[in-house]
Amino acid sequence: MFYLSLIEHNLHLPPHLLNRPLVDAIKDELERLYLDKVITNLGLCISVYDIRSLEGGFIYPGEGSSTYKVVFRLLIFRPFIGEVICAKLKASDATGLHLTLGFFSDIHVPVHLLPKESEMGEDGIWVWKHEFGDLAMDLDEEVNVRVTKINYPSIPVEQDANAQPFAPMQIIGEIYGDGLGLISWWAD
Amino acid sequence: MRRRLQANAGALTNYEVLEFLRGRGATSDPMGCLGAVTPSECKVYDWLVQTAACNQTKESIDEFLNKAEKFKLAKAEKLNIINLRPSNLAIIDPIIEYGEKRLAKDEAKGIDEVQELVGLVLEVLPPPPPRPEDEMQGQEEMPTEKPLEED
């Protein structure tokens, strides 16, 4: 679920960082720009893995900062389609299940990707009614979910005051199939 | 300003990411890793520590890859197995695409490759750390003290 991506960036190094060792200053500047941000179609940037090359250091006329061309690798979180992830059930409502990984909370299992005979109880908890009994999908349970799609919605222009915070990367998963769903269902 | 030269320059197992973060100075203690790693990296570290990657070593992963050669799994499937550490047939089923066609199962001859693969996983890859709920249940079952006998 983690990848490395090779990126080239023309970085402006602000003058107040010029007294620090160069590589550290560049690394901090890259972390400030990339860490914890989602790049569309690439994923969530977790960390700057390493810096491959550094060129430049010219100061263009009219600017105070030096410009470097940096080639570096970023550690990206982006599960591949078809990957099975073990996530925790955070919330459950009429649209489906919401799962979290601690550092990433926008994993959604919509209603049509739940096991076939599932029904929602009054408290919002989904229950899988299969031939051998009922199995409830309680909160805070570990769930194996298979990734079907990753959406990168664009930033909304307007939002309701009490809407969910905007999620730049949304993973859609399914728990329809053998071995998927709560791991307590398949435990030895 | 920015160009991506190679969107996919290599996939990493959870174990490799964990080693990378450990090398940078991340620990489970939230106060300890303030200077070395950012809070978001700390969250990733905290999650990885409670998966199967926590107990894995480079040797165990290499051994698994060598022994799994004969099953001809795709790279993504091997990565998924190493990350998830499926412990029985049911859980490994969604990971392997078209498992019925690719891995032989012939009860008459006693061949069951999926079962072999599960056995290999259980043998080579160490199990994940126990969940905190399991540990607490163990503590609740402490023997009650005998009441003191009075003269």
Explain what you see.
The complex is a heterodimer of chains A (188) and B (151). Chain A has 188 residues and is mainly beta. Helices cover 7% and strands 48% of the residues of chain A. In chain A, the strands form 3 sheets. In chain A, strands 5-6-7-12-11 form a 5-stranded mixed barrel. Chain A has a 4-stranded antiparallel beta sheet with strand order 1-4-3-2. Chain A has a 3-stranded antiparallel beta sheet with strand order 8-9-10, with no helix packed on it. The longest helix of chain A is centred in the N-terminal third of the chain and has 13 residues. The mean pLDDT of chain A is 87. Chain B is mainly alpha-helical. Chain B is globular. Chain B has 8 helices and 4 strands, in the order ββααααααββαα. Among the domains of chain B are: 37 residues, no CATH class; 68 residues. About 9% of the residues of chain B have low confidence. Strand 1 of chain A pairs antiparallel with strand 2 of chain B, so a sheet runs across the interface.
Concise account of the structure shown:
With 188 residues, chain A is mainly β. Chain A has one helix at 22-34, and strands at residues 2-13, 38-39, 43-59, 66-77, 84-93, 96-100, 107-110, 118-120, 126-130, 133-136, 142-151, 170-174, 181-182.
The ordered H/E elements of chain A are EHEEEEEEEEEEEE
Helix content of chain B: 40-55%
Q: Roughly how much helix do the residues of chain A carry, as a percent range?
A: under 10%
What about the largest sheet of chain A?
Answer: 5 strands, mixed, barrel
The backbone outline of chain A, from C-alpha atoms, is: elongated
Quickly give the structural class of chain B.
mainly alpha
Main location (chain B): nucleus
GO biological process, one term (chain B): transcription initiation at RNA polymerase III promoter
Protein name (chain B): DNA-directed RNA polymerase III subunit RPC9
Subcellular location (chain B): Nucleus
